[in-house]
Amino acid sequence: MDKISLKAPAKINLYLKVLGKREDGYHEIESLMQAIDLYDEISIEKSDILEVECDEPSLPSDDSNLALKAAVLLQRRAYFPGAKIVLKKNIPVGAGLGGGSSDAAFVIRGIGELYDINLSLEEKLELASVIGSDVPFFLSSGQAIISGRGEKISPLKLPLDYGIIVIAPPAASSTAEVYGSLKNHLTNRQDQILLKREMLSSSFYRMLKSFGNDLEETVFGDLPELEEIKKHLIRSGCINSLMTGSGSAVFGVFRSTKTEDFKLEEEIKQNYRVYFCRPILLPPF
Length: 285
What we know:
With 285 residues, this protein is an alpha+beta fold. The protein has 2 domains: 3-155, Ribosomal Protein S5, domain 2 (2-Layer Sandwich), CATH 3.30.230; 163-277, GHMP kinase, C-terminal domain (Alpha-Beta Plaits, 2-Layer Sandwich). Helix content is 28%, strand content 28%. The strands form 2 sheets. Strands 1, 2, 3, 4, 5 and 6 form a 6-stranded mixed β-sheet that branches. Strand 1 and strand 2 (27-46) form a beta hairpin. The longest helix is centred in the middle third of the chain and has 17 residues, at 99-115.
């Protein structure tokens, strides 16, 4: 096999708590993440050099691109000649949906399959944590509580019988700037959310109503239209609506898996990117 094609999914943060700032400069977080069926498309071909091509002009083509960074670090760990990586971006950039992190994780998978590289899961997780905070999640089943700065993963088994609407504004959000602007009282919450390792739909929906994102206040101050989108989704019948990650996308969870059941205002459909999605599980790495 000389070429492989993969689909790298997005994620949403069903809740996100910022617990404090670490000595290494990162923030200690706790978050429940769920993979969703919104995908970037990746093609990887054997080559004598490492290179990346992307149809999104705002993304770099050097190793600050997480997909190429993943390939460079993997090559240092387990030598292979090279790879040509072609990315078709369908996941909005700077929206808190984890597209770059997912691309990196699936580049590790794809190159591993092309060159028959057999790293242990522990080695892959170690590599992923160096690439970026969200990358280890995409080596999980697609449902997990993540903690630390994102490198600690606790798998869960959650329901999949619900729909998700993701609304992404034109403006992107910078994770570094959002965390750098956090107010002190947002970093000191120590209250715990206790989830069972396996949950029925009824229990999950009850807890979902109480979930929040500690970064919303900071981002909504700069992008107040996001708060209006959130309010609209809740008025429209969503169980809950949250910003995902550090933004700028907002999502709503609704009980029906039939996307045609959910009606949006024409203004939102005209001015924002709208995606109707479902939660998914990821194949084993």
